[in-house]
Amino acid sequence: MSLPSKVKIVEVGARDGLQNESTPVSVDVKISLIEKLADAGLPVVEAASFVSPKWVPQMAGSVDVFKGIKQKANVNYPGLVPNIRGLESALESGVKEIAVFAAASESFTQKNINCSIEESINRYTEVIEKALENDLKVRGYVSCTLGCPYEGEIASEKVAEVSKRLSDLGCYEISLGDTIGTGTPIKAKQMIETVAKHIPMPQLAAHFHDTYGQALANLFAVLQLGVSTIDSSVSGLGGCPYAKGATGNVATEDVIYMLNGMGIETGVDLDKLLEAGRFISDQLGRKPNSNVGLARYV
Amino acid sequence: MSLPSKVKIVEVGARDGLQNESTPVSVDVKISLIEKLADAGLPVVEAASFVSPKWVPQMAGSVDVFKGIKQKANVNYPGLVPNIRGLESALESGVKEIAVFAAASESFTQKNINCSIEESINRYTEVIEKALENDLKVRGYVSCTLGCPYEGEIASEKVAEVSKRLSDLGCYEISLGDTIGTGTPIKAKQMIETVAKHIPMPQLAAHFHDTYGQALANLFAVLQLGVSTIDSSVSGLGGCPYAKGATGNVATEDVIYMLNGMGIETGVDLDKLLEAGRFISDQLGRKPNSNVGLARYV
């Protein structure tokens, strides 16, 4: 067992999280949340998505969000970019890092972004090229790595193939998403091992959902392989569009609690993080959706 | 990593769970729950506690519960016994297995059962002796193994010492409880490793709480040591008396989901288990408190 001594947390609540909440929040609330998350010591705070507000009303005002946040020098604030038009908005906002979103499942890609995996990669080729020309860093998401809501099991080889293509296009990090949370520890390990045959481990991130309660166990499993980047969402923001009563993204608070308990450094102040989680939960009119938040406050 | 190929689940919802629910349920409902759990394939279904109903009104009617359940030949139905009077009720009920309850924390023992650890062991000496004379099996609980609500950290050596004493008195299995759910994977491993220096691994059970969301990660950690008995509570029955908004016992559904995903045999039918969880949650007028139950039903 070789656990990393440090883990980089990529906080996705303000984008991936809020994007999937039914209650839209104002630009000001988003800015406050992002600043609180950065103040809590999170090194990467995904801040917005440059998609059409026609499709994702929750992400309206992304340019204003970026212009509004007081950026800290040592924090990255990536923005999701679906296409060239999104990249243009991102560049206009002064974004320094973007993320693109692919999937290891054909059916999911069709239903989610209305094209084949091949077409999505082709579309991103131009986006990534232009982003790199503009000195942006590019992160690649691959979803459905441990199961697909339409196809069920997904071959790890397919995950590796899509990941490698994004990596070859210039993504500096590949975030491997268990989009429906059906993964369990051994499968999570096997998937990461397969991808790591093609992409160095330090370039991989685990983006696990807690829908079936498995996320921390899966994270502990892949930490043992040396994975040292974890995506998570403050207060479990986001829920799960495929199981209405259930949790989606693993809560950052629970991840930090586990890492703290194992002496793994993250630089995150759990109390400040809990406050940020409480702030946004209050704004959404619901209880915190992290176990640590519930244990501490409710 | 040497995961066991089979795991024995000790279902504690009908006792440890219901005992900590604020809504008492009738003897008939308890009987139905116990029978549903046994029908789901659980090999051990803790059925009642022979404590005074003056102290624990939720456990009133334990003798009637035992007389009412149609026992399956291949299922154990242990009953908790706090003292000689409890043992007499247990014997009157025809119980074949009892459990006694100690703790690795002095303060917790004082507050919980109003005596020192030493006094509790002395009290159990007579109970266990008499139980063994009557051909009952005896299981020993040790609580606060990964933290105490009053003392904080608990030395694993203390856990090992209390466990060894119960084992020496004749307990065939020692259930190691993370009573407040503050354990994390490495600490859970270290605690089990320490106890396993004194008691063979097949005689140890992990009884972990999910208060901070850590239970499955902790279970995955100790499964890797070869732990092959897990205590859990259908639909997360029980809550946590030390953190009102939080979860207590890890939900059996979530444990089974993880073990199924890893190909570890339990003999439990997840669908029937989910039905049992739904039944008792409906009786208590609340949503299921397992992630799998929420993902499937709500």
From TrEMBL, chains A, B:
Keyword Lyase in annotation: yes
First-level EC class: lyase
Organism, as annotated: Cocleimonas flava
Protein origin, superkingdom: Bacteria
Name of protein: hydroxymethylglutaryl-CoA lyase
Swiss-Prot/TrEMBL keywords: Lyase, Metal-binding
Keyword Transmembrane: no
Pathway: Metabolic intermediate metabolism; (S)-3-hydroxy-3-methylglutaryl-CoA degradation; acetoacetate from (S)-3-hydroxy-3-methylglutaryl-CoA: step 1/1
Domain Pyruvate carboxyltransferase: 7-274
Family: Belongs to the HMG-CoA lyase family.
Entry EC no(s): 4.1.3.4
One GO MF term: metal ion binding
